[in-house]
């Protein structure tokens, strides 16, 4: 039985006004948070890591998703697998969160020892009737999509991950994520409900007043605007962007770089969106000077000015892929009012820090943008908890993708509750 009041959650869903923000309880009620973990994070494909983080046999990575913990490990057969990070003896965690290098997975409590394929290899003092084959690690569904690793805790994961992979892998392939490495990783706790983190990511209404650094390479008009409110200068900028976007798409597609918009944010269990977008200035990378931060290109890309490929997945990830580096983000709920945002910057595996790239230049825009977003999320969490809060309407021009996130979330919640 669920550890929350399903009827109360259904009532909240039924009261929601289309095109409006959610009621306070969606962000502040522990019952709703438990429903979210049960219906969303325990049932859907969750982006957790990059395949290059486990490049060799014995490389392992432990990731927490709510109360669950998952171990991702590359076996001696080069296959990457995922298991519940729970010893089959008395439940001890096998590995702490983060990366490890292991010969076997050995429980630190009583030394039950598992192979990299999850099979129990050694358990002392268990007697003659004990059958090791019945006590291997419990597997977790895992899928690499072009080098991005997704796990699903459900016994029967959504099968549309296959179609997502078929559509998105041609977009990711030129960046050759499997031959990258993590140049830098940063964990930031945002003091807000996970949905506020995702809502904030799904719009750029807030970008111009709050992200002066990010809007150096990114066009403020790239995600919508109210045409009747534009000044002559704004109209000129909007037209310049649309002309550049159309011309860039045609040129990139002709060069073998899939670029045009694919959007399935609210019509399938594994919602996603992708498009290659032009960048301002030199058009090379998401850096302060809009030029490439790393001189070693990714994959077979030789033209530095191939814009930025953005790729979003519901419920918890967004990614930016340029010619020289990649930035990946995953949002993992900690409790109703805290969310872990994990950011990783990837460069070509042969790139050398201080020789091929300057780390500060590589990370500065998203480092400062993440902190700005964390402040905005915390400010909003405080506001939605205020008794005076009344859900307001979304902008039809700049918050349409927030509405699509909400439609996806509510549909998945409703489907799970029955």
UniProtKB/TrEMBL annotation:
Q: Name one Pfam family in it.
A: Ring_hydroxyl_A
Keywords tagged on the record? 2Fe-2S, Dioxygenase, Iron, Iron-sulfur, Metal-binding, Oxidoreductase
CDD domains attached to this UniProt entry: RHO_alpha_C_GbcA-like (cd08884), Rieske_RO_Alpha_N (cd03469)
SUPFAM superfamilies tied to this protein: Bet v1-like, ISP domain
- Give the protein's cofactors: Fe cation
Q: Which Gene3D superfamilies match?
A: Naphthalene 1,2-dioxygenase Alpha Subunit, Chain A, domain 1, Rieske [2Fe-2S] iron-sulphur domain
Q: Per the database record, which ranges form the Rieske domain?
A: 45-151
UniProt KW Iron keyword? yes
Q: Name one GO molecular function term.
A: iron ion binding
Q: Which InterPro entries match?
A: Rieske_2Fe-2S (IPR017941), Rieske_2Fe-2S_sf (IPR036922), Ring_hydroxy_dOase_asu_C_dom (IPR015879), Rng_hydr_dOase-A (IPR001663)
In its UniProt entry, what is this protein called? Aromatic ring-hydroxylating dioxygenase subunit alpha
**Highest classification ranks of the organism:** Bacteria, Pseudomonadati, Pseudomonadota, Alphaproteobacteria, Acetobacterales
């Amino acid at each position: 039985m669920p550890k929350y009041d399903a009827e109360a959650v259904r009532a909240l869903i039924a009261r929601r006004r289309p095109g409006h923000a959610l009621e306070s309880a969606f962000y502040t009620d522990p019952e709703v948070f438990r429903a979210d973990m049960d219906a969303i994070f325990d049932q859907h494909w969750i982006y957790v890591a990059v395949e290059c983080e486990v490049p060799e046999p014995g490389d392992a990575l432990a990731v927490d998703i709510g109360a669950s913990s998952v171990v991702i490990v590359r076996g001696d057969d080069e296959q990457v697998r995922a298991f519940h990070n729970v010893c089959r003896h008395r439940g001890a965690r096998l590995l702490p969160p983060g990366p490890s290098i292991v010969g076997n997975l050995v429980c630190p409590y009583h030394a039950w020892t598992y192979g990299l394929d999850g099979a129990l290899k050694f358990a002392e003092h268990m007697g003659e009737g004990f059958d090791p084959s019945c006590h291997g690690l419990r597997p977790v569904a895992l899928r690499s999509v072009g080098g991005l690793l997704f796990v699903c805790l459900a016994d029967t994961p959504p099968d549309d991950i296959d179609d997502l992979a078929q559509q998105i892998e041609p977009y990711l392939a030129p960046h050759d994520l499997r031959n990258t490495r993590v140049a830098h990783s940063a964990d930031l706790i945002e003091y807000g409900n996970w949905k506020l983190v995702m809502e904030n990511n799904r719009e750029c209404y807030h970008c111009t007043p709050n992200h002066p650094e990010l809007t150096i390479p990114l066009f403020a008009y790239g995600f919508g605007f109210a045409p009747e409110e534009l000044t002559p200068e704004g109209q000129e900028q909007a037209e310049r962007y649309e002309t550049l976007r159309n011309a860039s798409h045609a040129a990139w597609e002709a060069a073998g770089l899939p670029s045009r918009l694919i959007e399935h944010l609210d019509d399938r269990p594994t919602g996603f969106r992708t498009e290659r977008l032009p960048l301002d200035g030199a058009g090379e990378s998401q850096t302060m000077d809009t030029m490439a931060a790393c001189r070693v290109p990714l994959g077979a890309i030789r033209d530095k000015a191939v814009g930025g490929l953005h790729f979003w997945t519901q419920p918890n990830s967004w990614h930016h892929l340029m010619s020289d580096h990649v930035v990946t983000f995953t949002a993992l709920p900690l409790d109703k009012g805290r969310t872990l945002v994990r950011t990783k910057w990837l460069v070509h595996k042969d790139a050398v820090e201080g020789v091929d790239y300057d780390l500060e230049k590589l990370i500065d825009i998203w480092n400062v943008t993440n902190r700005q977003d964390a402040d905005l999320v915390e400010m909003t969490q405080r506001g939605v908890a205020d008794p005076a809060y009344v859900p307001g309407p979304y902008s039809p021009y700049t918050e349409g993708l927030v509405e699509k996130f909400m439609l996806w979330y509510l549909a998945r919640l409703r489907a799970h509750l029955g």
